[in-house]
Amino acid sequence: MLLCDQVEELNAKSPDQKFALSNTFYNPFEVTVQMSVLPPLENQRLVLKCQQRPQMIEGHFRSRINMVNECLEPGRRNMTISVTVLGVALLTVLMAYLVFGDDNDREGLVTLRLIGVVIRHGNRSPTELYPYDPHINYEWPGGLGSLSDKGSLQMLNLGKNLKVRYYKLIPSNGRYSKDNMYVVSSAAERCIMSAASFVAGFLPPLENRNELPISWQPVPINSIPRDRDHILAQKKPCPRYDEALKKLMNANTTSNEIKAINEKNEALYEHLSKHTGNNITNILDVELLYNTLEIEHEAGLTLPEWTEDVFPDKMLPLAERNLELLTETPFMKKVKGGALLTEIMEHMTKKRSRTLTPDRSIFIYSGHDVTLVNLMRALDIIDQTTKKPDFASALVLELHHSITFKDDFEVKIVYYFNSDDKFPKEISIPECNSPCSLTQFTRVMDKVTLRKYDMICSSV
């Protein structure tokens, strides 16, 4: 099966020349001719091999079928194959639709009305090094704390994976619209770049409608200044929270558990301090060092021998515990996880009442590991996901129309562990029936809802 626009080129080639037409994207609605392929060739055989491959196409079947991977090998004398390209293409589309097309419908995605997507940025360079680091003079592309090429590709693939699930919310013309989608990022450049890479995969322009000589379309990435950000980077000042965290970390006033952790790991702290040149005294110090070692390892750099007995096994549990410590109490969960959750719930509530303006369906939040951990801790779902999110992971809160509830919607939550996840894990919502109505979800989450950040942060 050959494409119409390749016939002239094909006929101009030598009969003895091999042809490889693989990974070709085409729109079957534009292929309308019948043709014979290749003159007969002696002592060779002609094989027309069609393989299905995932691609998105125009119209009703866009994002729901496997496209055709076409390849042609040299033919045999006196053998001519005539194919009706349109008929075969449409038949392929129909069969793929029947086999694969209703997967999302079976999952209830036909009822989807709104999503809040919270992503962690992709792979990055370290934000800090340690004095005795053997790679202290290594030149990290972009500098410290920058999104790597690997990280950009991770985010692109994550966007592609989410598009497979949420294509119904994307306009049929494939174009960005401020009335349909909103993207906001932490002010960190790696988060802004991650958002851009994610959107390039999630919302690529349709091939036959792209007037630009690029394979992506410009989409605005809004960002929040760090000193005013209480939902993503969560660096907006909150004196009351800072005091609560200080008490937890202070060896003289901390809880018995944290004090016991520090005492149990004194030898580890001493070992790390000796070999790094840093003064390692608590689990925060361990987490920061762990992040540096993890990134250097992923970059293919050889870690020093002293790390063999401690990284990752002995350090990872402490790094995870430090992330949890940021939302140790109900108040801390409200401050660090409640603000973002409240914003997403407000979008859902307005969607249900038809008062959401603009009436958007897609909200994308690009943040950090703490953004995800704090939100998952507020939702009380951390045990179903991970205590230390991978690069390019995503938590999605979904709003569905449901015939189960009168004048109400259903809430679902799914988690993508990394950019390799084609299918997310569906999360059970604690204290909420299944299906979980928006009304009940809002009631359950009332304990962490936060609308007056400044007031709660300053009150005693």
UniProtKB/TrEMBL annotation:
UniProt keyword terms in alphabetical order: Membrane, Transmembrane, Transmembrane helix
Reaction(s) catalysed by this chain's protein: a phosphate monoester + H2O = an alcohol + phosphate
Gene3D superfamilies documented for this protein: Phosphoglycerate mutase-like
Superkingdom of this protein's organism: Eukaryota
InterPro entries: Acid_Pase_AS, His_Pase_clade-2, His_PPase_superfam, Histidine_acid_phosphatase
Segments crossing the lipid bilayer: 81-100
GO MF assignments: acid phosphatase activity
Family to which this protein belongs: Belongs to the histidine acid phosphatase family.
Protein name as annotated: Lysosomal acid phosphatase
Organism name: Pseudolycoriella hygida
